[in-house]
Amino acid sequence: MPSELIPRARLAALLASTKSHRIAVIGDAMLDVYLTGDVERVSPEAPVPVVRVRDRRYALGGAANVAQNVAALGATAELVATVGSDESAKRLKVLLKKQRGELRGLVPVDRPTTTKTRIVARAQQVVRVDEEIDDDCTPAEITKLKAAVSRAVRESDALILEDYNKGVLVATVIEHAIEAARKKGIPVVVDPKYRNFFCYKGATIFKPNRRELEAALGAAVDVEHPQTLPGLVEKLGVEAILLTLSERGMALIEKGATSKKGVHRIPTTARDVYDVVGAGDTVTAYLAAMLASGATALEAAIIANFAAGVEVGKLGAATVTTKEVLAAYDKHTGSTGQ
Questions:
Q1: ∠ CA(160), CA(76), CA(147), 5° rounding?
Q2: Pick the CATH number of 2-33+53-333 from 3.40.1190.20, 2.30.42.10, 3.30.365.10, 3.40.50.970
Q3: Dist. CA 205–CA 296, nearest whole Å
């Protein structure tokens, strides 16, 4: 792990500066619902388990969870997303307020708020129920989204584009957002999905996981030799690709990379992995915050990797504080914290 590339004093300064930043998060917001209970019998109506619900919990999902991760860093997050006129929208707004997230970027649309309900029995997910419409937003809704994007980017120090293929990040919104960010000179971090994979020209860091990249390319990716990927950076028109590889860590490929330079493997720092849900959102939030603080792409990737190592040691989609990242760095490097 190239952690020695970031002296502790440099790391501490980058983490401390996040409190002064505003970060715009644009994408698909969701409400996650968890119904937890016990199974003691099979239904007489059909051969399915009967779950007696003991607990109901609501959580932010999708781009809303990324905004929550930004807030956990101490920065101010403005989420630009769509919500319906339903109970899920009301609950999502309440949760955002608790995380100090701003609500003015939420655009009302004539469709349900994307809601994912997970029914869990004895720590095992029995079924997931999705309530959503994932068609592209209408032209009128896109006009409202672009206005919200312009305002959010104008007041921000970094931009995150968080795509879940639910209709917000259509090509015209993506192009509008990146153009606004480039005019202001702020970094852009992209977490893509397959529909508009090749629409993010001008982004600072493009962060697919291996499955997303292989689906977009229609071919397997040799993760042991990421030096074969520099041509993709030019094809995408981005400054760097950060390929996340789950338990194998990450690979950073920078613009102009060759087989001997500009390609970095960053092994995972996780010691205990309890749950990988939400780790990608944590990485995205940290990348944007560190770039806003003046970190290089490599520094941002290394710090985000430490944050991911902390996140997977928690159950569920969790947030990670800067204090936890600094503690993880100290533990990994044997630093005394001085």
A1: 55
A2: 3.40.1190.20
A3: 11
Catalytic-residue membership of 134? no
Write the DSSP string, 233-285. HHHHT-SEEEEE-GGG-EEEEETT--SSSSEEEE----S--S--TTHHHHHHH
State the pLDDT confidence band at 277, using cuts at 50, 70 and 90.
low
Return the SS3 of 135: coil
What's the pTM? 0.92
In the set 28, 157, 191, 281, the catalytic residue is: 281
The answer for residues whose C-beta is within 8 angstroms of residue 256's C-beta and 6 or more apart is 230, 262
- What is the C-alpha to C-alpha distance for residues 158 and 187, in angstroms, rounded to an integer? 5
What CA–CA distance (Å, rounded) separates 286 from 292?
A: 10
pLDDT in tens, 150-164: 999 999 999 999 999
